[in-house]
Amino acid sequence: MSLLNIVLFLPLVGFLLLIFTPKGNDQLPRMLALGISLLVFVISLGLIGPFMGSTIPEGYQFITDSPWINSPPIRYHVGLDGLSLWLVLLTTLLTPIAVLVSWKSIGHRVKEFFAFLILLEFGLIGVFVSLDLFLFYVFWEVGLVPMYFLIGIWGHDRRIYAAVKFFLYTMAGSVLMLAGIIYLYNRAGTFDYVQILGQLQSGRLVLSSQAEMLLFSAFFLAFAIKVPLFPLHTWLPDAHVEAPTAGSIMLASVMLKMGTYGLVRYSVPLFPNAAHKAAPFIIGLAVIGIVYGALVALVQPNMKKLVAYSSVSHLGFVVLGVFSFTQQGLDGAVYQMLNHGISTGALFMLVGFLYERRHSLEISAYGGVATPAPNLAIVFLITTLASVGLPMLNNFVGEYLVLQGASQVNFTATVFAAVGVILSACYMLWLYQRTFYGKASESLSHHMPDLSAREWAVSLPLLLLMFWMGIYTQTFMPPISAQNARILQQYQQQQNRPQLAVTPDRNFSASEVANAR
Amino acid sequence: MPANAFPTGAEYLRFLPEIILTLAGVVIMLLEAIFTNDEQRKIFGPLSIVALLAALLASISAAGDPGAAFSNMLIIDGFASFFRALVIGIGIIAILSSTGYLRQERMLGGEYHALVLFSIMGQCVMVSANELIMIFIGLEISSIASYILAGYLRDDPRNNESALKYFLLGSFATAFLLYGVAWIYGLTGSTNLDQIRGALQTSAAPLVMAGAAAAFMFVGFGFKISAAPFQIWAPDVYQGAPAPVSGFLSVGPKAAAFAILLRVFMTAFGPIADRWEPMVWGCALATMIVGNFAALQQSNIKRMLAYSSIAHAGYVLVAVTAHSETGSAAAMFYLAAYAFTNLGAFAVVTYFARKGEKYVAIDDFAGLSQRQPAMAAMLTIFLLSLIGVPLTAGFFGKFYIFKAALDANLTWLTVLGLLNSAVAAYYYLRLLVVMYFKDPGDSVENLEPAGLSLQIAVYASALGTLLLGIFPGWVLDIASKSALK
CB of B209 within 8 Å of any CB in chain A? Predict the structure, then answer.
């Protein structure tokens, strides 16, 4: 039993344990959820091992490949590479944090809450480690259900609307991806990602340019909704604002990464020609998203909505980096996924702390918080600066690399994206100013205790990572770069391979392809 | 008269499930005259289940010795065995979920159980018929029993309306079926499916008229499977009929009707597939759209499930349109998956509706998750399966159907069908919203825990739904082996 299987299935075991804990005792499910999520995190640290040597291993580590369903052949095929490694760790790190954040704020139906949170972890890890398209789709959908309940039961006033909208948007996008997956299966005879990729590279499977474009679109739509890319982002502010703090953290930090991960893992390597053709269009949308998200964030009176729109803006950078098809752009994009996970997760957490104290998300309800709660103010400031992209903190690295990569292919887009960086400083610092500076009102100082020990405990790891990832990139970057270099190499090979202009819809044998050349 | 006028012992063995069911039904009706009080009548439920289990065993053992029976009128192949086992299994769950209901309505009669057994017996004949006349006989046995079941609570006006509508429209549709049979007989000189196929292959018969005959017969089948535009009856009948009967009607007769639709159209009308394929294509699409979009509007849960069952018939019609071996296997798997899911959902509705079916509005389910979390969790599993979320049976059902459709190059139908299933998510989610996100109201006060037999029905259905969702290979392998070529 490889380590990865333990990390994947331990949350499922935890979910079952939580369901069957006796009713009436609220402390037991909390302890159980914390224990299991911490255990998963500790075990998941062991996954880093193979990637830390002086040479990054080729291919996937911790592979398990066993049949699940015989006909059609669907395999339980999981593995880890430089791209998925850190995303899995991000998930396992943030789950215990989300558990601790919800320790006091979730007061009713406690058992169910933690059960769904742990089930969500199972689905999210599954998405990042699946190497079988079918398995990937299963996990992709499985994650939807717990998040739907987290928003719908423990959310704020308009939670039902937000939960249903979240579910339907994602569902609508993913059904077409399912059609795409089945089509690929019918052509390749397998759902196995590695095999399909191999067939495409060796020329055993040739997609006509029209089929490739349709497949790319089907996958892209599912991913773009999840990212979310402008103009498919409208579910996100609703979901974030209405979700409980832990839901927002998991949604922003990990769930949105499912979309960007899908772009890097599937869209680019499987459909390189279509990706290349669509790139200018997608870069356009990404840049619009960066600027639009920032502008809308600027005028939000609601803190959570502000952070939600800042996510739209930040994830535009990720998409921009991916579709620049440069080493720096891709490295920056993947790094930015992690950065966004850390810093936006921290922001939602801190907004949650404020909400627990004052029971309002309106910025106007605050002001002068720094006086009664200086520690909270400092932590919030560091997180704000990280989110803005101050050098020495994590986001700077990712944004810089993305801009550098993008500038090599599309300078105009880069200029507009850079404007987004400036705007992010505007809305974040303005938020900080209005919330923490000024004179604290009597009622506010009264209800604004400083950080508790539990809150310090969840803040410190995130602060540490912001500095670590900003100063010593070398810990994290080599596995990511190595994997991105492989993706780019495959991408360029595909680009160079002459495409058959009018390709009949059938598989070619190797000799036929050789003759065609 | 053919030489083998006297059937052999093997042929009787192949027909044993039907014989058991008929005898059991007759015995129960006789016993009813002797048992006059409810205490004694409690025996009917267990008795029916024993009979059904015996029939199940008989049909499984008959699967080991496939072949024709009674001068080729019946054919017990893998396909027939699969569906016989399925409808008998449906019968077991239906009886389990109705015992408590009948007692609470003070209608614990033998005829209910006998009618269910007769209906299942008719369905068994349908699925193993190799002959248009036998199909008609099976269909009538099943239908007439179903008409009476729909109006079983004879003092309730809703039941009367339901039964009358079902009967009138059903007879009308059956007339179309018979008319089609008559045409085919006139064209080919036979009612045997293989011989019809042979005649159509040699194009001895005028193909336009054969196409028209296929269309007539499709009207008859389309009514039974509630395909648009022949679906009008379904919501009214399901709403009016007793809840456990609605659950039974939505899966039992439907599965059997799909079985004969597949058999007739793939065997007899196989040679003229290019004529009926566009018709079924359009019908599949219309059925999905009508079912899903009408279900969006419903406030009564039985009506909502009725429209949902129309939509699901549309998905199965997609598999029929593919008219391939994988399509046939996909339809078989789907019908099995849908049977577990929908029987379970209706069992929870039966439980929740209580005496006189007072609580059947969707809003009545508010707060169910807080009063009876286990039942709410089970209903959640069924709803997720109806939506088609992975790790439930419904997901794999849809997956296999749309895979078969893509295999058969039905790209547009696949895309439209998948989009339909995204629309469908909305109305199932609404029930989840009410159960989990709304505060408990009056309707969940005094909600007693479910009786034992209903609990068995619900948990067995949920187990089936999850097992088919996690290990679909078990059923799919059987379906693939016994699919029509």
Answer: no
């400036």: which residue's tokens? A422
Is A512 inside a domain boundary?
A: no
Distance CA A473, CA A396 (A): 11
Count the Cβ atoms, other than its own, within 10 Å of residue A373.
23
Is there a domain that residue A508 lies in?
no
What does the alpha-carbon distance between residue A147 and residue B133 come to, in Å, rounded to a whole number?
A: 54
Residue A432 and residue A390 in contact, taking contact as beta carbons nearer than 8 Å: no
CA B61 to chain CA centroid, Å, is: 23
First to last CA, chain B: 31
**Best residue in B403, B410, B431, B471 to probe A by mutation, most A CBs within 10 Å?**
B403
Q: Is residue A32 part of a domain?
A: yes
Chain A: closest CA distance from residue B69 (Å): 32
**Distance, C-alpha B244 to centroid of its chain:** 13
Confirm if B364 and B352 have CB atoms less than 8 A apart. Answer: yes
pTM: 0.88
Give me the residue from A71, A148, A168 closest to B426, CB to CB.
A168
CA nearest B251: which of B167, B332, B309? B309
User: In chain B, which residues have their Cβ closer than 8 Å to the Cβ of A109?
Assistant: 370
SS (H, E, C) A229-258: CCCCCCHHHHHHHHCCHHHHHHHHHHHHHH
Segments forming the whole domain that contains residue A197: 3-52+60-503
The per-residue pLDDT for range A416-464, each reduced to its tens digit, is: 888 888 898 889 999 898 888 888 787 777 888 888 888 888 899 999 9
Task: Using alpha carbons, list the distances in angstroms from residue B44 to A307, A477, B51, B104.
Answer: 64, 72, 10, 16
Whether residue A206 contacts residue A503, with contact meaning beta carbons closer than 8 Å, is answered with yes
| A135: nearest CA partner in chain B | B390
Q: What number of other Cβ atoms are within 10 A of residue B202's Cβ?
A: 10
Q: Is residue A513 part of a domain?
A: no
CB contact under 8 A, A152 and B403: no
Q: Looking at the 3D structure of chain A, how many domains does it have?
A: 1
Banded model confidence at residue A172, pLDDT cuts 50, 70, 90: confident
On whether any CB of chain B is under 8 Å from the CB of A16, the answer is no
Residues of A within 8 A of B472 (CB-CB) are: 69
Q: How far is B54 from chain A (nearest CA, A)?
A: 31
A179 touches chain B (CB under 8 A): yes
**Cβ atoms of A312 and A230 closer than 8 Å:** yes
Q: What residues are paired with A76 via a beta bridge?
A: A66
pLDDT one-digit tens code per residue, A46-76: 888 888 877 777 778 888 888 888 778 888 8
Element (H, E) at B33: helix B16-34
Element (H or E) spanning A67, and its range? strand A61-69
Own/partner pairs, A492-495, CB within 8 angstroms, 24+ separation: A493/A201, A494/A200, A494/A201, A494/A272, A494/A273, A495/A272, A495/A273, A495/A276
Averages of pLDDT over runs of 10 residues in chain B (485 residues) are: 68 91 93 85 90 94 87 90 94 92 85 94 94 93 93 89 92 92 90 90 77 92 91 91 93 93 91 89 93 90 93 94 91 94 93 85 87 89 91 91 89 88 87 86 81 92 92 87 82
What residues pair up with A69 in beta bridges, in sequence order? A74
CA B339 to mean position of chain CA atoms: 7
Q: What residues 200-219 of chain A have any CB closer than 8 A to a CB of chain B?
A: none
Residue of B nearest to A182 (CA): B403
A223, A236, B52 from A263: Cα distances, Å: 7, 19, 53
Provide ipTM, 2 decimals. Answer: 0.83
The DSSP secondary structure of B180-242, one letter per residue, reads HHHHHHHHHS--BHHHHHHHHHTT-S-HHHHHHHHHHHHHHHHHHTT-TTS-THHHHHHHHS-
The single-letter code of the amino acid at B237 is V
